[in-house]
Amino acid sequence: MPKVSIIIPTYNSARFLPATLQSVLAQTYRDYEILVVDDGSTDDTPAVLQPYRYEITYIHQENKERSAARNNAIDQASGEYVAFLDSDDLWAPEKLKRQVAVLDAHPEVALVYCQARYIDENGQPTAFCGDWIDGPKGDELVIADYFEALLGGNVISGGGSTSMVRRWMLNQVGPFDVTLNHGEDWDVWLRLSRLGPFAYLPEPLTSYRVYGWKRLLTHQSTSQAIEQHLRVIDKNMAGWDGDPVRGERLRKNAMRGAYLLAALGGYQLGNFASAMDSLARAVQLDPNLGAEQEILWLAVDRAKIIERASGSYAEAIGFMDNVFDHLPPELSGLRISRRQAAGWLYISGAFEQHQQRNDARARRLLVSGLLRAPRALRNRGVLSILADVSLGRPLAAFLKGHPDEEKAA
Fold this sequence. Notes:
- It holds the Pfam family Glycos_transf_2.
- GO terms for molecular function: transferase activity.
- It is a single chain.
- This protein is α/β, with parallel strands linked by helices and 409 residues long.
- It has a domain at 4-211: Alpha-Beta Complex (Spore Coat Polysaccharide Biosynthesis Protein SpsA, Chain A).
- It has 18 helices and 9 strands.
- It has helices at residues 17-25, 45-49, 66-76, 95-105, 147-151, 167-173, 184-193, 213-220, 223-237, 244-269, 272-285, 292-310, 313-325, 338-355, 359-372, 380-391, 393-400, 405-408; strands at residues 4-10, 32-39, 57-61, 81-84, 90-91, 111-119, 142-144, 163-166, 198-209.
- It is globular.
- 41% of the residues are buried.
């Protein structure tokens, strides 16, 4: 019996499958089986898989979507652990080895997941949403209870390709919900988190393929997505047996997160009516969200993602204009924060450029930011960068009282 069952659902991904399978066959850990579920593909998937016929178990089904494909493979899997891999994603050679070691060493852990890097359609690294998927960087394995963190949103990013789970636990919590087209991974992770802690490996052992923000945001911000995300929340809070006041607070916070995700996607896509409605509902659930600084930083944080993905501050500023031009009526007084938000977008860029020692670029961004948000001069970090890029790092370090700082750098 193999130690790991690798489950690869696929639908019309023939052009990506060879690279995906090669990344599995290149694993340094070899005790596995590969189950590829062809979910009724109409391209040349069967022909592409033919050279791998001795290395995979090929399962064909009528088109029933990814959850049904995964469930089909789980029913036929024989491994102690199950690792999911989307048919257009890639694994680093050490992925299985590192995750098997974690589950072997920590029998209480239900799921282990890793960090991932974004790649584009051509397999090239892309800064879409930043270089890495959500999650703290570091060197140490983190083991923690995840239920409450997961309620706020699916922090197990990577579409399942970053994860490995214990098969008996997966069988205990039940199959992927085939009625969900949105949040089906999230739903299973929430159920698993009730059985044991999760482990996080802060190493980018997966390459997660993205096709541009419009496709992703359209998927996230539809009325169907909102409805299904709320259904996942209600479904997983139904068994809450803790303090009822805390449970209601967790439920509201989770709903707030679902509405915010939809609102930000709507603003970015120009679907202003739905964006305004979603933001208003989020504020109803959490009135503190209507504070000036909360809205400002919501806009700045998403705008920074847009700037990284597009390389264009103009596009990022355009997004913030969308937000402040189309706030719900009860928040219309916050439109005056537009200029300050733009300022902090430039200032955050200055921090990044300063960290990369691109001081000329940092200086230009800092000036642009301070012209729009002069109150940022009250921030000690801003003042420190201003000194570095204006006076030069050696003189600035001397004046700050730590002249050896630049030598150490």
